Amino acid sequence: MRTSDTDAQAVRALTLATRTAVAILGPGEQARDVAQDVAVRVLERRSQLRDPDKLAAWVHRIALRETLRAQQRARTRTRTRREGELDDAALDVAAPSPDQAGRMDAAHAARLALARLGERERAAIVLRYVHDLPDSQIAAVLGCRRGTVNSLISRARARLRAMPDLQLLATADSGGPR
Amino acid sequence: MTPASDQPVIDYLQELRELEPDPAALAALGAVRRPRRVRRTLALSLAIVAGSSALAAATGVWPRNPDPIPPARVVPGAVPADVTAAVSVFERPPRPRDRSPEARAALTGLRSPFVVDAGSVRAVGTTPRAYVAFARTDVAALPPRLRAHEPPGGTQGVYVAVSPAVGDGPFPLVDIERGAAWGIKEHSAGGRLFTGVVPDGVARVQLRLRGGAWTTHPVHGNVVLAKVDEGALDGWRWLDADGRTLRRF
After folding, report:
1. How far is CA B124 from the centre of its chain?
2. Residue B3 C-alpha, separation from nearest chain A C-alpha, in angstroms
3. Is A129 on the interface with B (CB under 8 A)?
4. What is the pTM of this model?
5. B136 and B155 in contact (C-beta within 8 Å)?
């Protein structure tokens, strides 16, 4: 029935948006608020969606936009407080810190690294590795060609590999340099 | 061999593939939806939460809770006069079976953030028996950002249930009067059950089945129950006591 379809759409939207928001913002109130906002927007605008097959791409677009906006707002607030100084704190992502075993918090480090990517690189890598989307679907969400998706993901991974924090983390995970 | 230095990021992202929404977010989402759709959302939410991955529990990203959305609380309250004027089952004096354990059990299908007015529960019909109650959103329990999506006084209307698994609503009065207060659910006895709430004056309803056949069903206490085949309903109409058609949908 149409009503059941709508219910499923709302829950699907909340699920997708939660994963995107947590990937970029981390678990917590901010991610929860963004995911809820996205789901409410989908509910409010569902009549605009003519083709149900395009629901996922539509939700991904809204979720990414709202998540990146939330991150941008957080950065702006911090910049204002710090009079323009941009550092890890200004990215609103906790800087990696050693835990009791002397290792960095992997999730924090990952989010910090993601925050240093460009917005489209970040979006492409989240769509690929969180949502497991193929190039064609990522291209549909980002409004670009498949070749551009490959390029965005390759560039993003190259930039991640060049980040010294992550090199330390990968080395620690593998039991130390060999 | 040392892994690629971006592997921790890829691992972090891939671990989120099974992440399920916070149960509270699912419940809150239900509260901002169109009233006749709320029950289904909450049911779906429960199903999803029950099936959520071990990842969420293991990582502690969202706490796992086997029963995250409690049943609607029963609270003191009164059915609004405009509702009793159109749905007079609520004016009938209460009987013992209105307060039976079966009634309470059937109404547990309605979940928080709704609350049920204690004096409003009425048993109607015989086989199967249904229970109607007046329910409303507990607006004070909603986060402020979601309160903004609620109409003044919260979403409120008539909830009808045969069992915890077969219930629909709450239907606002406006939906009842425009013939939108109905739903179809899988019935434990097999098949699908049409559940509808109609205003006073409607004595029977006719359901139009796909293929053009009509079936006629009596109304008991503003409620009509009818077994229907899967996906077979094509429309319905209201009849008065003399068999005259009042409205078609």
Report:
1. 17
2. 6
3. yes
4. 0.48
5. yes
Q: Is B169 left (phi over 0), alpha (psi -120 to 50) or beta?
A: left
Question: Which among B69, B16, B65, B112 is positioned nearest to A17, based on CA atoms?
Answer: B16
- Residue B114 pLDDT greater than 90, yes or no: no
ipTM value greater than 0.95: no
d(CA A34, CA B22): 12
What does the alpha-carbon distance between residue A80 and residue A75 come to, in Å, rounded to a whole number? 8
Test A15 with B62 for CB contact under 8 angstroms.
Answer: no
Chain B residues touching A19 at Cβ < 8 A: 16-17, 19
| Cα of A153 to nearest chain B Cα, Å | 11
Closest CA to B240 of B214, B203, B215: B203
Among chain B residues, CA nearest to A4: B40
- Going by their DSSP bridges, the two strands B73-75 and B114-117 should be labelled as parallel
A-contacting residues in B 32-71 (Cβ below 8 Å): 32-33, 36-37, 40-41, 44-45, 48, 61-62
3-state class percentages of chain A: helix first, strand second, coil last, to nearest 5: 75, 0, 25
Does the CA dihedral A29-B57-B53-A11 come out positive or negative?
negative
Residue-wise pLDDT for A88-100, tens only, equals 333 333 344 444 3
Positive or negative torsion for Cα A34, A37, A42, A45: negative
